[in-house]
Amino acid sequence: xxxxxxxxxxxxxxxxxxxxxxxxxxxxxxxxxxxxxxxxxxxxxxxxxxxxxxxxxxxxxxxxxxxxxxxxxxxxxxxxxxxxxxxxxxxxxxxxxxxxxxxxxxxxxxxxxxxxxxxxxxxxxxxxxxxxxxxxxxxxxxxxxxxxxxxxxxxxx
Length: 157
Prior knowledge:
The protein is α+β, with helices and mostly antiparallel strands. It has five helices and six strands. Helices cover 29% and strands 16% of the residues. Strands 4-3-5-6 form a four-stranded mixed beta sheet, sandwiched between helices. Strands 1-2 form a two-stranded antiparallel sheet. The longest helix is centred in the N-terminal third of the chain and has 14 residues, at 2-15. The radius of gyration is 22 Å and the shape is extended. The N and C termini lie far apart (50 Å).
């Protein structure tokens, strides 16, 4: 009988949707993009004064419950188009490898140019001012060197 009750409790816990909650903080970066983070420590110091209190933000819910349909619950919004990303690298640069690995791990589509092997890539790299690798062009924005937090902000990750 005890075993049956344990199994019944386990089945009940597995089948009942559980609502989880977490604090979310919002700020707007210098390019005007709204950035949401899960802890205040993730907000760069220059933006901390504009952080929105987590309790003032709308509720975020996700449910795997079969009767829940996000299409019925909220109006559909079209996701913004991903910016075009160009990565200017060399084969011997460790930070270039880190930047490329970052893009792959985060599912970012990008065009890679090895500036020592690709004349078009070298010309474009020079048009961006050169000066070192990697150079990462995200839309009209240029990131010099590998900086994961900055790339996350620029790519809205």
